Amino acid sequence: MKIRYIRLLIKILSVIMLVLLGWLVVHLYRIGVFNDTDSLIKLLKKYGIWAPILFVFVQIVQVVIPILPGGVSLAAGVVMFGPWLGFLYNYIGIVLGSMILFWLGRRYGRRVIDIFVSEDTLNKYMDRLDSKGWYWTFALLIFSPVAPDDALVLLTSLTKMTWHEFTIIILAGKPLSIFIYSLGMLYGANWLLRMFGH
């Protein structure tokens, strides 16, 4: 009898947490945190020592909900926390988000993938998913800062790749792409202006 009540309590608490998280995501979206670097930095400054935790949460959300632009938060992390801590917080958030996304794809399959992955991306990669070379294809694409990482994670969740293999690729492949992308977002425009004499 007690076990049944404990399970019921856990389910109720889980629903409450999901509703609160949903409200928080909607609130953050409305104040522009996911599409404006300045809005994100202003919000983070208000939270002092809690800013890194909030930032990691924002990064997880932008990975799990692939319709949100990741470039905003990558650049904000470097601006707000500096190159090393910014990189670290970006890395933690993106890795955790990728693992949650992989789990969602494994758990719900095409139902969740069809929502977030465009038909063009599906058509581009679907034929290669069952091939023996997908492990290396996925690894090389994850190293690239311009590949559609979130879509690739969801597609890979349909394959026979193990959790262990997936985790190794994400842990090893993400640092380079995060480093290049975040620094490119910050300094690319200034470098181009100097190159052309402006």
UniProtKB/TrEMBL annotation:
Q: Where in the cell is it found?
A: Cell membrane
Regions that span the bilayer: 6-26, 47-68, 88-105, 134-156, 168-193
Q: Where is the VTT domain?
A: 68-183
Do you know which InterPro entries this protein is assigned to? TMEM64, VTT_dom
Q: Name one GO cellular component term.
A: plasma membrane
Looking at the Swiss-Prot or TrEMBL record, what is one Pfam family this protein matches? VTT_dom
Q: Which UniProt keywords apply?
A: Cell membrane, Membrane, Transmembrane, Transmembrane helix
Topological type in the membrane: Multi-pass membrane protein
Principal subcellular localization: membrane
Q: Which family does it belong to?
A: Belongs to the TVP38/TMEM64 family.
* PANTHER family attached to this UniProt entry: GOLGI APPARATUS MEMBRANE PROTEIN TVP38-RELATED, TVP38_TMEM64 FAMILY MEMBRANE PROTEIN
How is this protein named in the record?
TVP38/TMEM64 family membrane protein
